[in-house]
Amino acid sequence: MVSLVLLSSFTYPHLSTFYKSPLHLHHHRNDKNQNLVTTTLSVPYASLYQNSSKSLLLLSHQRFVAHTSIQDTDTETNDSSSNLVGEDSAVFHFEQQKLSSWIYFTAILGVVLFILDVAWIDNSTGFGKAFVDAVSRISQSHEVVMLILILIFAGVHSGLASLRDSGEKLIGERAFRVLFAGVSLPLAVTTIVYFINHRYDGIQLWQVQDVPGIHQLAWLSNFISFFFLYPSTFNLLEVAAVDKPKLHLWETGIMRITRHPQMVGQVMWCLAHTVWIGNSVAVAASFGLIGHHLFGVWNGDRRLGIRYGKDFELVKGRTSVVPFAAIIDGRQKLPKDFYKEFIRVPYFIITAVTLGAYFAHPLMQAASFRLHW
């Protein structure tokens, strides 16, 4: 593939000077022994004419580099910092943040939580309890109700995600995000609250809570699972539609380990809680959630393929769904400073929030119990 990188170009309306500083072309090829051979050519000058009605574009005296790489197919799919087609994930620069945007975000968050409480959570005014009661009439089994709640949430969540392209064209990116969140959030809260309230109501299948090391293993697995959050989750201003929401093609950070980190994180969370609780309700919840995220693997790849085409195929070729698989088989080449892709503000926030959520478990359980869902 040949790519010409113009480090500096200027357009002048009336300029006819030739710069005679050399243009260096670097030609890379692999010989029969797969050794890299580099040939440097010097061109005395370079100029590009346009017709009289257009400006004359001259290459400046700075050096411009053209890279011609003749590589085999396997080598072309290898990743490096120089041939990424996707975006760098979890990037957060304080100097690029606008105070007004975060004030707007805080205001939106407050309004959303207030509406959610009044319209859904509060049993005296909201529809949450009526919804749970209606689903509970379908079956007396907590396992069945758990699965139905997950199925409803999954259908709405994945269904709206699948309609994103057409929906954004119809009503706009921000309006569609409000619709998506406004429908998905109450259903997600309902599913979580029902699980918390009925997690010990099923048939006990095993009991390992007294086994030494099980609590530490479950805690560590749960803690690590939150670092597999999908990178778009970090874009809080887009999540709240303060910034225009985008369907991103991420390629760095956690994406090097697995192309579907949210699925991997959900599997880890489910396994940790299922092993610890050890009953049929936990098994049912894990079955439903893992099934939903496995569908998301297919659906997510399909949507990214439609949006990004060949660029997604390149990313897909050098990443894997199974964690570390692409690294092990050589399709993913980690940069020497790969660890720096995790030393970023969002991951420090995730650490703090995850630890806070663990210590807040009693408060979450008490709040859920008061709803009587």
TrEMBL record:
Q: Name one GO cellular component term.
A: chloroplast
Q: Which InterPro entries is this protein grouped with?
A: NnrU_dom
Entry membrane topology:
Multi-pass membrane protein
What keywords are assigned to this protein?
A: Membrane, Transmembrane, Transmembrane helix
Where in the cell is the protein located?
A: Membrane
Q: Which stretches are transmembrane? A: 102-121, 144-163, 175-197, 217-242, 263-290, 342-360
Record carries keyword Membrane = yes
NnrU domain location is 145-364
What is an annotated GO biological process for this record, any one?
A: carotene biosynthetic process
- Main subcellular localization, coarse class? membrane
The record's annotation in Gene3D superfamilies points to:
1.20.120.1630
* One of the record's GO molecular function terms: 9,15,9'-tri-cis-zeta-carotene isomerase activity
Q: Output this protein's name.
A: NnrU domain-containing protein
- The scientific name of the source species is Lupinus angustifolius (Narrow-leaved blue lupine)
- List the taxonomic lineage: Eukaryota, Viridiplantae, Streptophyta, Embryophyta, Tracheophyta
